Amino acid sequence: LLLGWVLVFKVQEANQKPTEYQRHHSVREVVTKLCEAGLHTTMFYSVQQDEVYCKVRAPPERLQAEADRQDYKVPLDAMCLKAICDRGRFESHGWNPVMYTTFASELYPFEGHYAPYDRERAGADDIPYKSYSEGTFRNVDRIKLIQSIMECPRYLNGAGLKLKDLVHKKACLGVYPLHDYLALLTLQHKWLGLFKMPGNQPDEEIKDYFGEKIGLYFVW
């Protein structure tokens, strides 16, 4: 299980009087809500023993359930899409093989396609989700889905937490996603070369690690 987020809490002194909001969002209350939402937590003290770190992660089946609930868009595998179009589905769906004009890359017409995640159809021949080293979901997808679970209302099986309010109202010192340092180091080697030209940036890798918005920024 890969870690996704961390929440930092301050250890309260005996003479400190928490506000009503802080009492209702103590470490115990927050962790209980996270666990009831199907998330896994790991907790430990800081070196100075004045802070508590709570790492939050989600098992694959919980990520799949959340992606299915919100129809989270995931990329489709270009090679599998091409194979489906090449053979057609006349007997089951009534359409013949689809022929495309010749492109510089034979996979070009099949790249960049997305579909809502459906865990009941995951792995089926007609909806070939792209697979990454982390599985169906990239690191950035996992971070987004865990955030959604933490903020989603409890009647939708979420934790019902407002992360910005936790920090703003000082129930929590900080809430932030964790880096995957192995993936980050790999990206740094590809991206930050001394003689690397701007036109040769690893656009796909940047998008897959930092997300679509940052990826689009560097493309343009």
* Share in β-strands: 5-15%
Distance between the termini: 35 Å
Global structural class: alpha+beta
Oligomer designation: single chain
Mean pLDDT: 87
Describe the global form: globular
Helix content: 25-40%
Radius of gyration: 22 Å
Order of helices and strands: EHHEEHEHHEHHEHHH
**Which strand order does the major sheet show?**
2-3-1-6
Give a quick account of the main beta sheet: strands, pairing sense, barrel closure. 4 strands, antiparallel
Number of beta-strand segments: 6
Total count of helical runs of at least 4 residues: 10
Low-confidence stretches: none
How would you sum up this structure, described in words?
There is one protein chain. With 220 residues, the chain is of the alpha+beta class. Among the domains are: 1-71 and 137-178; 181-220, no CATH class. The protein has ten helices and six strands, in the order E-H-H-E-E-H-E-H-H-E-H-H-E-H-H-H. It has a four-stranded antiparallel beta sheet. A two-stranded antiparallel sheet has the order 4-5. A hairpin with a 5-residue loop joins strand 2 and strand 3 (51-57). Helix 9 packs antiparallel against helix 10 (212-219). It is globular, with a radius of gyration of 22 Å. The model has no long low-confidence stretch (mean pLDDT 87). Residues 5-181 form the Anoctamin dimerisation domain. One of its GO terms (molecular function) is protein dimerization activity.
